[in-house]
Amino acid sequence: MTLPSPNDDQAYCTTSALEAGLILLPDEMFIAGAIPGKVTTAPSLSFLLRHSTNNKTFVFDLGIRKDWKNYPPSVVNRINVRVDIVQDASESIVNGGISLEDVDYVCLSHCHWDHTGDTAAFKKSTFLVGGACQALFKPGYPVDPECDFASDLLPEGRTIFFDTANWEPIGPFPRALDFFEDGSLYIIDAPGHLPGHINILARSSPDGGWIYLAGDSAHHWNLITLESTIAQGHPDFPHGCAHADKDAAEAHIHRINELTKIPQVRVLLAHDEPFYTKNKGGPAFWPGKIPTL
């Protein structure tokens, strides 16, 4: 299993983590055999990527919005006191020295509330989402007052809904889009968690380094290492687990596990507690950069 070799003068992307809120995640909700009652304080990470030659700025996920009480009521009622947002993604970007108007693309791994932040703050960005998410907004909140997904979440006229059917394979993944058409950043179809779930595979250096941003493909590293399996039967999940399609989610986790065996590939989860604990407040966060492998 390999990834494409770099070309001469290979374009790549630098990647910076963004503070975008913390969330309490009971381990029993996500991994089978978890320690009873153990709760992980996990980040809801956002990432800022900058292209090495065309200077495009690409943000992946927006974490939790600071004014979380403005989510749809069905979401607010579930959040309760499970979140802590000292600095949201928008503030992290601006505090690092970039105007939100200079963000060219905002790509959402999926449309769950702890990844969508406040999309209204990005008034000029083009939004990128997996096309299958459109079904979540029919009709959406407030037409359906019980819906978790606000009908105005994705800006009309500035959102690209990807059709992944004809994407090409890369490495262990059967469907990927070479977004900038120069081998620098691939959008990966990542089925299982929620309709339209996508990941990012980006070159982190011109000489063979890569970074993989896995979104909610897994909520705990024990799943990626295959030490644990997905928890089932939790009453908080309508599908019985954290994923809408457990079989598809497991298959995708196995593909990420294969990716981790390729040299010079760094994998990060949206709720990557080990990465956050090691790096919070340090140079991996914007305006610093995550080191390439």
UniProtKB/TrEMBL annotation:
CDD domains: metallo-hydrolase-like_MBL-fold. Residues 43-271 form the Metallo-beta-lactamase domain. Keywords: Hydrolase, Metal-binding, Zinc. SMART domains: Lactamase_B (SM00849). This is Metallo-beta-lactamase domain-containing protein. Signal peptide: none annotated. Coiled coil: none annotated. Its cofactor is Zn(2+). It comes from Hypholoma sublateritium (strain FD-334 SS-4). GO terms for molecular function: hydrolase activity; metal ion binding. InterPro entries: MBL_superfamily_lactonases, Metallo-B-lactamas, RibonucZ/Hydroxyglut_hydro. Belongs to the metallo-beta-lactamase superfamily. The keyword Transport does not apply.
